[in-house]
Amino acid sequence: MIVEMQKGAEYRFVLQVLEKIKELGFKYQVNLGEERTVVAILGANTNYLDTQIFGVMDYVEEVKKISKPYKLASRDFKKEDTVVKIGDIEIGSNKVVVMAGPCSVESKEQILASAFAVKKAGGTVLRGGAFKPRTSPFAFQGLGEEGLKLLALAKKEIGLLIATEVMAPEDVSLVAEYADIIQIGTRNMQNYKLLEAVGKCGKTIILKRGMSATIEEWLCASDYILKEQNNGEGVILCERGIRTFETATRSTLDISAVPVVKRVSHLPIIIDPSHAAGDFRYVSSLAKAGIAGGADGLLIEIHPNPKKALSDGAQSLTFSDFSKLMEELKSIASAVGRNI
Amino acid sequence: MIVEMQKGAEYRFVLQVLEKIKELGFKYQVNLGEERTVVAILGANTNYLDTQIFGVMDYVEEVKKISKPYKLASRDFKKEDTVVKIGDIEIGSNKVVVMAGPCSVESKEQILASAFAVKKAGGTVLRGGAFKPRTSPFAFQGLGEEGLKLLALAKKEIGLLIATEVMAPEDVSLVAEYADIIQIGTRNMQNYKLLEAVGKCGKTIILKRGMSATIEEWLCASDYILKEQNNGEGVILCERGIRTFETATRSTLDISAVPVVKRVSHLPIIIDPSHAAGDFRYVSSLAKAGIAGGADGLLIEIHPNPKKALSDGAQSLTFSDFSKLMEELKSIASAVGRNI
Amino acid sequence: MIVEMQKGAEYRFVLQVLEKIKELGFKYQVNLGEERTVVAILGANTNYLDTQIFGVMDYVEEVKKISKPYKLASRDFKKEDTVVKIGDIEIGSNKVVVMAGPCSVESKEQILASAFAVKKAGGTVLRGGAFKPRTSPFAFQGLGEEGLKLLALAKKEIGLLIATEVMAPEDVSLVAEYADIIQIGTRNMQNYKLLEAVGKCGKTIILKRGMSATIEEWLCASDYILKEQNNGEGVILCERGIRTFETATRSTLDISAVPVVKRVSHLPIIIDPSHAAGDFRYVSSLAKAGIAGGADGLLIEIHPNPKKALSDGAQSLTFSDFSKLMEELKSIASAVGRNI
Amino acid sequence: MIVEMQKGAEYRFVLQVLEKIKELGFKYQVNLGEERTVVAILGANTNYLDTQIFGVMDYVEEVKKISKPYKLASRDFKKEDTVVKIGDIEIGSNKVVVMAGPCSVESKEQILASAFAVKKAGGTVLRGGAFKPRTSPFAFQGLGEEGLKLLALAKKEIGLLIATEVMAPEDVSLVAEYADIIQIGTRNMQNYKLLEAVGKCGKTIILKRGMSATIEEWLCASDYILKEQNNGEGVILCERGIRTFETATRSTLDISAVPVVKRVSHLPIIIDPSHAAGDFRYVSSLAKAGIAGGADGLLIEIHPNPKKALSDGAQSLTFSDFSKLMEELKSIASAVGRNI
Question: Taking the model in full, what pTM does it have?
Fold first, then answer.
């Protein structure tokens, strides 16, 4: 249930609403919009609440039941686009943000070289996996904390934000020490304990779409994170391809997710063309399509020597291909009224 | 099986190869490339042929068995991009071609107004359905020949090429009298009798991807048309969304099909964002993504009054939205080194 | 729109309703049920009809608009299960019908041996393809009329009904000369011209589900056939697997289609485990599941020598495996209160 | 890599192999089969190992690299069917095991009534959710430990084994105190930390297939559990429907998974018709198909009053429908040479 306050309602009237919600045993989240304040009432049984309880209160403009299963991620709760801020960097604003780096952190040389290539080409975030989810338990699982330290070193030496994946609630505080942005991978999109844990850690979260999740389920999953956050940290959605019958690419990039998410949600959305395609030969085309289609950024895999990568080499760009792509992306961004 | 002649081999040596193929009871198709001539040997049992039969002939460079199930559509048979020419218009060249119009031809006023809007905004082909495939036999099935006549009138009055769908072999000659480009719809992608019939009619064919066809099956279907054609008429592939579990859009536009097709086939590929999305609010985003991703053109539904359309109104753009989109597309095309 | 007559209404009152429908420019189909007569009003614009036009007529019990897109296949139009009768054979009754035979008719020896094996094991219909839809135009396309003649010979010699596929409207009358049951293959489920053509040919039709068709679309397709038929010829639905992301089997047999179809439609439904699995090792398991789940019959591929089959050998059972399966099926049928 | 010992090789020779594996820095798992002992060598880099290292050792019969990504779940590692034993109960043997109960434990009355109904009809395991994964964070999340206590009470009063889901590694030890069988839900199939945690807890695990997991990925996930287990606890696979385009049922039960799993793996497999269908009207048909197709058991939702269930009421059977189904299942089981 959503309670919209009147334009210019003083905060003490908002407080009366919040008191009433607590009294009834529910939780809430407040969106202090530019125009008006909106309060979401949260809990399993809000369906049984009578809208009139709040409708009669002072300075309440409107009370509505939301039929969408997601609430905090919806435009009903927050009309304006969310711009996630991390230091100077904004995600979801006019500037398109490019995050790039190797699938797995493998060595000091590899990560420093990658960071330098990202920086030089105009990227703003270094991505790299320290904890890797692998289909087989007997495949390479990442360097763990050692990998995080190498990312921190690259951050210090080169000057980029760090994005890396976390796979288990017990690792969240460790990863949060090193990372600026924490990724939730596609296999964990509905690992609710993990979503709640990262929601509490104070960092920006990239929530990758589950391989077979509908857009609606994805936004519901984002609610698990958003309900733990205060304003300002934020969630970035990342479309990375869905599972379909087509096998020419590893997944099918659902490019339509960009305009759909933009319409129903206020959250920023980025595209991961590398995991979607699973083949470096298609990455540039998908990256350009993503930006032209309205995405707020990209997550791209690059590697100093893709053929020798310990994981996902086939989908990584070389540094020179990445650099060439960045030039093309700048033109595309400009064609849609944005910049990189 | 593919027989590549040596560079500069005289045509009489090619003829020797063709004679041998006929003698053995097979069919063939010849690609007179700029650099060298390539001959495809066609038939159910080419696997049993010994490559040496041709390998020992004069001026034969190489003979290879093709493991891909499609032959004529493959880059192995024809290395250079196919540019389909219809009068002055080229499809598959540097110029991006926009085809637009209503789903169904409904009346003289509607089709003339649409044609004018297409022309004014910079489109080159008017699309409109006279024969409509409908899921239910009790839904509106199109105006038939009356619709074709209205398209012809619009062509004459406004000056655009005409593209329209044909659904049955017995209608092909009628439709070919009026249309410059004939569409095979998604439901008929594997209607082999129809494919062979349009292959013989001397017109350019748009082959829409089957809703659940893999890219490989789609290219195989194009072989059914190509094997009936002489050089120069050509086939245009059209990605229009595949069926997946996601229901936020009617189909899932498989944007990756663009770079995949460009890699394995020489045929031009266009995008139909209207049928993919099934919702006019997403069409512009997908159209821009398509061109940025490398597509050679677009097939877009527009309607003077989408709310009153007899079919597919929800996915049609108004004239003014279409005109605005065209301006944006020009910038995108220019950003990827092309023009509209 | 559906007009239900009162119980025991004389036929002259039904005629009044039919007259009115014709007068208004619509078509109709009549179901003379055991309890009461039901009339379906057919046409693109029945939505604009006022139910009261018929509601006030004598002996009309109820008039309802049907929101389902299929009408003639629905239980709203016909409450009782349809039992398709061909001579002595009933499909959709208590007896489970097994149709078996080779994918393609290859030779006299092959088809006679197959027919004998089917008969001996207790099957009632011989299936065999004379016209084969093939993904590639260069694959074996079937023996054509020669194949039909061999089927006719097997029918005469061994005494089984004949089921075979037709792929184009112009072949329907030829195939109908030889076949008792005509199959529409998965690729042609939405080839509407073909559906109408077979609807008129006076034979029973097996309508295979399109590889990516929803159950609703499948029933709509059956309406294209049913609207051309008089009572008594009938349509048999055949579930043959749908296209999903799983590649361990060629298609995914949608076993749930059996109870779903049984609930919403009156038509009989059979299962094709051979095409679904694409692997003979899984056929027995799926066949048994199909009968236990409530299917009215099976369509199974067998071959005297699967390894040498010209098409689909990998999914064909040997005669001895088929015979063993039939014994198991008899027990299963009996466990669900039916017989074979 | 798999090391097969010779028939009758004494255990001290096996020990030599194990020593060598440890020395090389790898882990192993031993299968003491009836005929011969097989050792699996586990780790990320077994590909780099030379098979000759073990091939030359005493009483080693054969050393092979396994190309399948799953190892411990494969028939290469263990030829004979695994029969999971919990007290007197066997899963994977000739007896078909029926597990039934409500989706969520709601109250003492509800769970005792359900347990009694399960017992009376011939079921052997009571299922019930205490921790519920829910798409929206604002939906009912289960009673938690209170629910576990109610399950324990039902076990004591009625005498059934208890199966319940666990969602987070930190809850595993708590749940293991109460449950005989621990379920991993579809959303957590690739929550690797959770798989490892339950692998260590000493209980039998039901691993549900991920909604969009291939059979191969599912078996890989089972390896995460199996590698932590000693012999005897075991893993039971549960097919619960996959995500496809069809919306007539909530998921599409992949019945083919039964024969496929039986061929490539030694693990038992059961079917969950309730979650697959999402509709009680289809549950009986799917349950019967499952047993006829070769499944080792069923997981069925029942509820004393489905319309009032706090979750998933639409898919729950009433007690009387369940009891009727059990009678039919007994006939089916007997038809395929098994019993319930």
Answer: 0.88
